């Protein structure tokens, strides 16, 4: 009962966070490219409880959509029309840009934002190819600007706690990882529309590009190892474009550290759940096998709602941990992964050391892994941006 009450309390505050009484006078001013569905969760709501962040502008191609979005989210400056993204980048009152455009546009608009002198928080995956990802990192370094790929779940203290348990070697060497992120089949259009950006090859769609980056990043994060080879990969094509867009992907990886890993991602697992009347449960779990036992991290993608870290030494009783705040007091029980991510982003921009940060070449590795999985599954690599030049 107490568990349900605290879940409800977290849910309430997560969606309606207590706003800070006043923003700092020179708070970081964010502009958003596109009236994207993810922006309220990933930036707008988290910003309300951060004294050093204001969302100052949004650009959306359609005037009515732009105005409605800005009104709903109380964003003072609105750009619309065919040139609206560039207008937002040219706005001297914007310090940082949030880029939640379709994957295939991440590269172009992040490069343009960096060239306009803005820090960038870009949605995952950072680009459609590893070559693009490398260029983006190089450009951010050259310009001395912050560029962060929004692998938000790694910023949550529960994720860091799992890594800490592995690295404490309490259970010895890491051997195997099983990482699943899969959704049940839901009535058509309930979650993703048929023309969703995720199903469009030219925009960098596909489940491995989208949901796949969660388990793939988890394997890198928990193993601290790079890919040696993709042993096998089997895709199930999406009905819209089955040869190029994967609805599901099952893959077996061998890492340089000799850890082996299985990944399963699916937009629409077939079949029904209990009693054949409700859909199957979402699969969102990291199962780690170590020399001396196992760790299960349930709901690693949205740990704020609910999660469990089950540590089971071989032959002994399991213990369950739940971690919503850092031990030193950073965070609140209801802070979402995005809120923790925003804290780190602002710290970095302000020259402070964030609690945690991605490794420098993570976005490149991410895309190299994705490319290797597609190649092994005999699916085409995602298209290179038409904006790409071999050097910038
Ligand atoms: N971190 C996370 O938890 C999540 C991350 N994401 C990532 O965020 C990104 C966006 O996802 P989501 O918010 O669901 O997508 P949406 O379709 O809701 O938003 C994408 C936005 O891109 C703009 N856009 C520009 N060109 C095109 C085009 N040719 N076709 C369609 N849209 C275009 C549109 O803005 P406008 O028309 O207003 O100009 C649109 O609002 C993806 O990279 C996805 O991987 C998504 C969900 C969760
Ligand atoms: O980032 C994401 O997280 C949840 C998924 O369901 C979604 O498709 C994806 O974009």
- Ligand catalogue: NADPH dihydro-nicotinamide-adenine-dinucleotide phosphate, the ligand O=C1OC[C@@H](O)[C@H](O)[C@H]1O
Number of helices, counting only DSSP H or I runs of 4 residues or more: 11
**CATH class call of the largest domain:** Alpha Beta
Total of domains: 2
Level of helix content? 25-40%
Average the pLDDT over all residues and give the rounded result. 95
> Would you identify the CATH H-level superfamily of the largest domain?
Dihydrodipicolinate Reductase, domain 2
Strand content: 15-25%
* Number of strand elements: 14
Which H/E pattern describes the elements? HEHEHEHEHEHEHEHHEEEEEEEHH
Radius of gyration: 21 Å
- Biggest sheet record: 8 strands, mixed
Structural class: alpha/beta
From the N-terminal CA to the C-terminal CA, the straight-line distance is 57 Å
Strand order of the largest sheet: 8-9-10-7-11-12-13-14
CATH architecture identity of the largest domain = 2-Layer Sandwich
Low-confidence spans? none
Overall 3D geometry? globular
Here the CATH topology of the largest domain equals Dihydrodipicolinate Reductase, domain 2
Domain Gfo/Idh/MocA-like oxidoreductase N-terminal: 28-147
Pfam families: GFO_IDH_MocA, GFO_IDH_MocA_C3
Family: Belongs to the Gfo/Idh/MocA family.
EC number: 1.1.1.179
Keywords:
single chain, 392 residues, alpha/beta, Rossmann fold, Dihydrodipicolinate Reductase, domain 2, 2 domains, 8-stranded mixed beta sheet, binds NADPH dihydro-nicotinamide-adenine-dinucleotide phosphate, binds ligand LJPVP2WV, EC 1.1.1.179, Gfo/Idh/MocA_domain
């Amino acid at each position: 009962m107490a568990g349900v009450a605290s879940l409800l309390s977290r849910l309430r505050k997560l969606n309606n966070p207590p706003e800070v009484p006043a923003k700092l006078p020179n708070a970081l001013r964010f502009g958003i490219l596109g009236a994207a569905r993810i922006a309220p969760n990933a930036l707008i709501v988290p910003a309300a409880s951060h004294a050093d962040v204001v969302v100052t502008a949004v650009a959306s191609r359609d005037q009515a959509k732009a105005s409605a979005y800005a009104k709903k989210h109380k964003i003072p400056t609105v750009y619309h029309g065919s040139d609206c993204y560039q207008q937002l980048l040219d706005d001297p009152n914007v310090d940082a840009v949030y880029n939640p455009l379709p994957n295939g546009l991440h590269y172009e608009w992040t490069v343009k934002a960096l060239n306009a002198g803005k820090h960038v928080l870009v949605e995952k995956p950072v680009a459609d190819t590893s070559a693009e990802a490398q260029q983006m990192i190089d450009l951010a370094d050259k310009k001395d600007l912050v560029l962060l790929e929004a692998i938000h779940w790694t910023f949550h203290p529960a994720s860091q706690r799992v890594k800490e348990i592995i690295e404490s070697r309490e259970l010895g060497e890491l051997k195997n990882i099983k990482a699943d992120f899969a959704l049940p089949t839901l009535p058509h259009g309930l979650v993703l529309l048929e023309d969703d950006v995720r199903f469009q090859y030219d925009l960098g769609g596909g489940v491995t590009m989208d949901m796949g980056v969660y388990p793939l990043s988890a394997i890198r994060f928990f193993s601290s190892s790079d890919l040696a080879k993709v042993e096998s990969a089997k895709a199930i094509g999406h009905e819209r474009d089955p040869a190029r867009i994967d609805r599901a992907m099952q893959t077996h990886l061998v890492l340089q550290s000799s850890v082996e890993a299985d990944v399963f991602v699916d937009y629409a697992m077939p079949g029904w759940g209990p009693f054949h009347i409700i859909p199957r449960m979402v699969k969102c779990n990291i199962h780690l096998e170590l020399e001396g036992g196992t760790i299960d991290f349930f709901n690693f993608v949205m740990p704020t709602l609910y999660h469990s870290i089950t540590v089971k030494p071989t032959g002994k009783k399991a213990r369950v941990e739940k971690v919503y705040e850092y031990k030193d007091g950073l965070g609140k029980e209801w802070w979402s992964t995005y809120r923790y991510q925003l804290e780190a982003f602002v710290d970095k921009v302000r020259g402070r050391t964030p609690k945690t940060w991605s490794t420098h070449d993570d976005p490149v590795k991410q895309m190299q892994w994705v490319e290797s999985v597609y190649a092994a599954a005999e699916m085409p690599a995602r298209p290179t941006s038409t904006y790409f030049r071999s050097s910038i």
